[in-house]
Amino acid sequence: MPSTLSLLAASLVAATSVVSAFPFHLKETENCSEVNGTFSIDNYKLYPENLDWDPVHCKLYISANFNSTVLVYDPYAATYDILTFDGITGVDPYHVSGIDYDATTESILISANSGNPFVTSGKNMTGANKVIRWDTNTNSAAYTADLADFTAKLAISNMTGGGYQDFAEDKEGNTYVPVVFHVPAIAKITKSGEVSSWYIGEASTSSKYIYLGIVFHESTNKLLITAPYLGTFVSFDVSSSSPTPTNITMNWPADGSYTASDLECDGLLNPARYNRNVLLCSENGLQAITLWASKDGFATVDYIGQVADNFTTDIATWASPTATVQIGNSIYISHEYFHDLNEFDVAGNRSTFPFVDATADFDKLVLAAGYTISDA
Question: Quick check: is 192 in a domain?
Fold first, then answer.
């Protein structure tokens, strides 16, 4: 039976509740026993949008999007804790969507963002947006960064930019938060919680998402970002004093089965298992994870195949693959259920959520394309 514990956080967020759990990142799992095989978590209205593994404490952090909480799962005991946040959990229109582990600070980054832009497909840009850095060693908030001042700068040319759901961290512990709607822009948050406008481009009239899934590629010091409105991945050099996006050359399948107009990686992962040379793109619209690989530091990428997300009839019918995560030597697909009530981005009454071990399927494509696999 989960127990509840309230903790006072140091920053703007105050209380958390714990209901029984554990975390993950990379060395990638020297401290943790192997995890493999598909599993499910029973938690009412969990509806996970994103997740990441804390490899120090061996726990999986999962965003409960509509509950605006974080579920912290121990895969060895099959128990969990739930983190709640004063002023956020249960407060409309907050969603908790983005989750990312930062090895530099041994923290989980949590996006507590307005759900309005997503529910209305970019028409209603109102609502508060915060990023919490959760210290996994002290089990408390190291900071809560408010994106309000940054968002205010996104009113450009009769367009209002905004919407946040993902981020990535560089090797200095800085966090980069891309904008989803109308204006290509990225906020930078230092490891102490200071927010700056790192990049703001020109507003777009495109009806497509601006920036979605993002990762940091350490060996090139680049951010790699999905840019659906351009139909490509773009990269940014984080060491640049005047950052600008560079389009990554994408070699699409010759048969036209997957094209630039399809690109919408809700989540993006460059797993250590594939030496950071392969991107796993969570494609909601295709109901699949597409794989992109690079041999030149992501100046170019080659499409090397896809894994259909149809492991059960229920998944094939209702689920959308929104994220992948590496846990030890295994790679899992996480699912959101956007249409349980036949209404987009609204929670239904689901209680059981599967996390599918698709390692063998990914490995097969990676090896067939001539890339190597590394065990932790």
Answer: yes
**C-beta atoms surrounding 31 within 10 Å:** 12
Unique residue bearing structure tokens 């894994």: 307
Closest CA to 115 of 135, 133, 101, 98: 98
335-360 confidence digits (pLDDT tens) = 999 877 776 667 778 999 999 999 99
Pairing of strands 330-336, 352-357: antiparallel
Dist. CA 234–CA 101, nearest whole Å: 22
Given the DSSP bridges, would you call strands 330-336 and 195-200 parallel, antiparallel or unpaired? unpaired
* Strands, sheet with 94-102, edge to edge from the N-terminal-most edge strand: 94-102, 107-114, 130-135, 140-146
pLDDT at 376: 56
C-alpha radius of gyration, the chain, whole number? 19
How confident is the model over 206-253, as pLDDT tens digits?
999 999 999 999 999 999 999 999 999 999 999 999 999 999 999 999
In the chain, the number of structural domains is: 1
Asked whether residue 24 is assigned to any structural domain, the reply reads: no
Main-chain phi, psi angles of 70, to 5 degrees = -125, 130
Instruction: Name, in order, each residue with C-beta under 8 angstroms of 136's C-beta and a sequence gap of 6 or more.
Output: 23, 54, 56, 57, 59, 106, 107, 108
Residues 267, 99: Cα–Cα separation, whole Å: 11
What is the pLDDT, as a whole number, of residue 354? 97
The DSSP secondary-structure symbol of 352 reads E
Neighbours of 221 (CB within 10 A): 16
pTM metric for this prediction: 0.92
Instruction: Supply the CATH number for residue 169's domain.
Output: 2.120.10.30
Question: Taking Cα atoms as reference points, which of 204, 207, 211 lies closest to residue 183?
Answer: 204
What is the spatial distance between Cα 206 and Cα 229, in angstroms, rounded to a whole number? 6
DSSP 339: T
Residue span of the structural domain in which 106 resides:
39-368
Q: Say what the pLDDT of residue 340 is.
A: 78
For strands 249-251 and 300-308, give the pairing. parallel
